[in-house]
Design goal:
Elements: E1 38-43, H1 50-65, E2 68-73, H2 81-91, E3 98-101, H3 110-119, E4 122-126, E5 137-140, H4 142-156, E6 162-166, H5 173-190, E7 198-200, H6 206-218, E8 221-226, H7 229-242, E9 247-251, H8 255-263, E10 268-271, H9 274-291, E11 300-302, E12 305-308, H10 312-316
Parallel strand pairs: 1-2, 1-3, 3-4, 4-5, 5-11, 6-7, 6-8, 8-9, 9-10
Antiparallel strand pairs: 10-12
Keywords: Signal, Sugar transport, Transport
Family: Belongs to the bacterial solute-binding protein 2 family.
Main location: other
């Protein structure tokens, strides 16, 4: 059913950043009356990195091409669970056909599922899946990410090398999946037990990584898996400051992290396109809305690859 879009202002205690984007796919600048226009709400976790800005850009482009009115909000940071809840409850009061959410807390999405069902809104997750409910997911396979990181460190470090992971927030599914697959792969290829791998679940900032990397290096760590490019840069800065040579693998691609790979400060980046994630999410949701009750609600995974100094030019061409 075609619905009209309602833009609502969100207010909550503290500082809340929001973005509203209303985009309509057009043919020669004019919407054809017989074409269905889908109203899709999006609630992301933040907009403080190139990864999230890429997701937003991909969504905007897909909305223009698929007759979609897109309304997009996000809280002040990706740990602001309470702010995100206010946004979600508010946007569900508007006339949307579907909601795409990257949950700040993957272990507390049941209320979102219940509210969406009550209001007849199709629900999807992007970038970060749910851990407590079965919601269709669009994004990178984070089990594959952890596996690639373990393989990279294994191939570049001696058998006796100590390894660790700066994992980010523990309430988010990608953290759980990456830790699990990283540990399992190191167990598989090196026989390393879980308790022999240091896992830190600090909030995912540059400063957090800067401080915790110093502790890890002092503890003898030679290989480090960082759960974002930002944390990888913090770890690299810490190693440089201490004059230590460690093998760092991080996730996501942004200009300063790519330059760090080119310099050799970061050994590798597990690359996947935020733009592709956003574009695929809107395209997938629009397609499933078109299919109606017969839509297949499976997960859609975006590919990821390891980018190193040896092959980085292939990605920059």
């Amino acid at each position: 059913m075609k619905r009209s879009i309602i833009k609502r202002m969100v207010s909550c205690a503290g500082c809340l950043f929001y973005l509203v984007i209303c985009l309509s796919g057009c043919a020669s600048g004019t919407m054809l009356e017989e074409e269905e226009v889908w109203n899709i709400g999006v609630v992301l976790k933040t907009m403080d990195s190139e990864h999230w800005r890429g997701i937003r850009s991909g969504m905007e482009n897909a909305a223009r091409q698929n007759n979609v009115n897109l309304t997009l909000f996000y809280p002040s940071n990706e740990w602001a669970e309470d702010e995100q809840e206010v946004i979600v409850r508010d946007i569900m009061e508007s006339e949307i056909d579907a909601l795409i959410i990257a949950p700040c807390n993957s272990t507390n999405t049941g209320w979102i599922v219940d509210l969406a069902k009550e209001k007849g809104i199709e629900l999807f997750t992007v970038d970060t899946r749910s851990l407590d409910r079965d919601i269709p997911y669009i994004g990178v396979d984070n089990m594959e990410v952890g596996k690639l990181a373990a393989q990279c460190l294994d191939q570049n470090l001696p058998d006796s090398a100590k390894m660790a992971m700066i994992a980010g927030g523990g309430k988010q599914a990608q953290t759980v999946d990456r830790i699990d697959s990283f540990q399992k792969e190191l167990k598989n290829i090196r026989g390393i037990e879980k308790d022999a791998i240091t896992i830190t679940k600090e909030h995912g900032s540059y400063t957090d990584a800067l401080h915790v990397t110093k502790e890890l290096i002092n503890d003898g760590v030679k290989g480090l898996f960082c759960a974002s490019a930002v944390m990888g840069l913090g770890a690299a800065a810490s190693a440089e400051e201490m004059g230590k040579d460690i093998c760092i693998v991080a996730i996501d691609t942004q200009d300063d992290a790519i330059k760090a790979v080119q310099r050799g400060d970061i050994y590798g980046l597990i690359a996947h396109s935020g733009y592709e994630v956003g574009q695929t999410a809107v395209e997938t949701v629009a397609e499933r809305l078109e299919d109606g009750p017969n839509a297949v609600k499976n997960n859609v995974y975006i590919s990821c690859e390891l980018m190193t100094k040896e092959n980085i030019e292939e990605y920059l061409d």
